[in-house]
Amino acid sequence: MFSGKVVVAQGGGPTAVINQSMVGAVLESRKFRNVELVYGASHGLRGIVDEDFLDLTQETTHNLEMVAETPSSALGSTRDKPDLKYCQEIFKVLKAHKVGYFFYIGGNDSSDTVRIVSEEARRAEYGLRCVHIPKTIDNDLMVNDHTPGYPSAARFVAQSFMGANLDNRALPGVYIAVVMGRHAGFLTAASALGKKFPDDGPHLIYLPERVFDVDKFVEQVREYYTKHGRCVVAVSEGIHDSTGQPIITQLAEQVERDDHGNVQLSGTGALADLLVDLVKKRTGIKRVRGDTLGYLQRSFVGCVSDVDQREAREVGEKAVQFAMWEDRDGSVTIHRTGFYSVDYQFTELTEVAGKTRTMPDEFIAANGHDVTDAFLMYLRPLLGRGMPDAYRLRRNFVPKVLNRG
Amino acid sequence: MFSGKVVVAQGGGPTAVINQSMVGAVLESRKFRNVELVYGASHGLRGIVDEDFLDLTQETTHNLEMVAETPSSALGSTRDKPDLKYCQEIFKVLKAHKVGYFFYIGGNDSSDTVRIVSEEARRAEYGLRCVHIPKTIDNDLMVNDHTPGYPSAARFVAQSFMGANLDNRALPGVYIAVVMGRHAGFLTAASALGKKFPDDGPHLIYLPERVFDVDKFVEQVREYYTKHGRCVVAVSEGIHDSTGQPIITQLAEQVERDDHGNVQLSGTGALADLLVDLVKKRTGIKRVRGDTLGYLQRSFVGCVSDVDQREAREVGEKAVQFAMWEDRDGSVTIHRTGFYSVDYQFTELTEVAGKTRTMPDEFIAANGHDVTDAFLMYLRPLLGRGMPDAYRLRRNFVPKVLNRG
């Protein structure tokens, strides 16, 4: 075991349970005698480079427990995507502060950062344990059965569509809602978990794992609506044509790109609006409405899976235990061992770092616009206890008096 | 007392607790010996005209209780806005089915329908009691302290902004979210109930009760952002200029209008996107994001105020009691009698029908872009038990080692 300080940092988009992992790592670290102090980096890697550390050893356990139940990175996050030089800078600061353990909670980009920092430390023959703690609402990390943050976001999406379906049933029409997930459709697929009765929506689910054909989409909506008088549609923000071009670039006149050249998909209602216009114009259906679930999916307070909370806490704790007892760098990964139970393993960083997992074929219906029972079985236990349930009045029709015909 | 059948119908936009009122009216009706059968009209007034009734006397109490806890009009709703002829048609059907009691759950348009049907019955000297049961997420009914449906929608808005504020704190920038409410700002104002610490957002709140000046708005966002490094903004969909023109018509090239000539404000993310573009272009701030809370505000399953549930149930029950014991037509209204308690009165339909209540001046801050403590005191008890709470890490800063300057 090394001795020295511990640094915990949070990266990328916040989740509902990311603070569980942070608190798990902090409280577990404080049990080890070789840990001098536990620091939290303010706003992720940026805070390390700028030496903005909070001393979490001076924080009460009680307040840490309260923070654990609060969504969104309590330490602050960053969208900085570090290159080699940036990683070297990180290493320099960690060394200057006599840090022996670096825990970074984040997605696949974050695990790649951990990998580079780990290699820098090895090259410099400096005793630093670097561990990646998984989190992402997209559920797109390799090796993992699922990723902390996803179950709670999935629950939000399921509850949203459960309500949207009830609303659409009361006031029929076409309803289209856009869900986050650039490459992986796990979150959009979660919309199916709000279904109870056979005619419940979403009736059409479009995932980024399949090519999106605008004409086919319009026809499928028209067909469903004509037959059933209403139609609820779940669409991934990442839908694209056969060349990989995002559909939004086909439909919109202007699109915005981020620093990495990616088309901006979140933080705008454009895709939903464009699809709504398209359906209106091409089908002539009058009541067509669109929503973009937006940042609420990852930030809404008061919609969390207890399974997600527990696992997020455990990956934080396990990260510290693996770093101490296995004495190597790696990524904590989640593996399903029953219906429903999980175990944690310590995986090589290179197996997770910078890679993207998408939905396997067995989770996607053959028709390309629905999910399979295998997916429902996969996701249901992750949503946790107390999922709301929807009930209906029974159809005891009264005989007509005036319009007997 | 009249004898005959009871008809219950639900109108307008669904709410999280509208079925509580329906079930309250149904179960209370079934206690009266002069009530022969209890019918539910399928899809509101449209179901009456088409004679689409469900016999709720054949429904189990257990299932009614389950439906009561399910959001969105279980009987179905309609956007039909009846004229005199339509109301006469309603009356004709009610008479043919020997209906003695008509209970209509809805907003101000619905209360106006009840008023017209009531007048028709009187003119025809037909024994029909007509009662309006209040519901609207906009909270814009006259006479009432507040309206069932509003507290749950307000809670959703408060929890959304509580989360959006945490997200914005983790990844700073400008965040603008658009909230429902064409003329009344009560729902947008509810965004302030997610605040805990003095620097929590929303930092700017724009209500339809005040004139929206585009230039001032941009300046206020720029100023707040420059000073604090981030800015969370709540905007009502109904914001308008000094001539009453919706801001969306100023900013957008194309707007859609409904059958009543109203500009479409809901079911589109356009306003948020336009405000985001405006702030980006005029201030040069890079991270500017927008959301439109959309239909989730009224349909999300799993975010409900227990106070709202209880009151929605009671207005349904009281409607039946008033109809039976007071032997006149009217609207059930809610009146605050303590901190916190309410009582119900039976108000003349003409006092509620077709009128719109907006936020009183005492609830709006003098600066025009915030709410007052009086509003916080007004709304807080309505949100009910178990409101989530947000916690922060204490700022125990670590001295810098490298960048001592």
TrEMBL record, chains A, B:
Mg(2+) binds at residue 108. Residues 5-322 form the Phosphofructokinase domain. GO terms for cellular component: cytoplasm. Pathway: Carbohydrate degradation; glycolysis; D-glyceraldehyde 3-phosphate and glycerone phosphate from D-glucose: step 3/4. It is an enzyme of class 2 (transferase). The keyword Translocase does not apply. Its main location: cytoplasm. Keywords: Cytoplasm, Glycolysis, Kinase, Magnesium, Metal-binding, Transferase. The record marks 135 as: Important for catalytic activity. Non-allosteric. Belongs to the phosphofructokinase type A (PFKA) family. PPi-dependent PFK group II subfamily. Clade 'B2' sub-subfamily. This is Pyrophosphate--fructose 6-phosphate 1-phosphotransferase. The lineage of its organism: Bacteria, Pseudomonadati, Pseudomonadota, Alphaproteobacteria, Rhodospirillales. The gene is pfp.
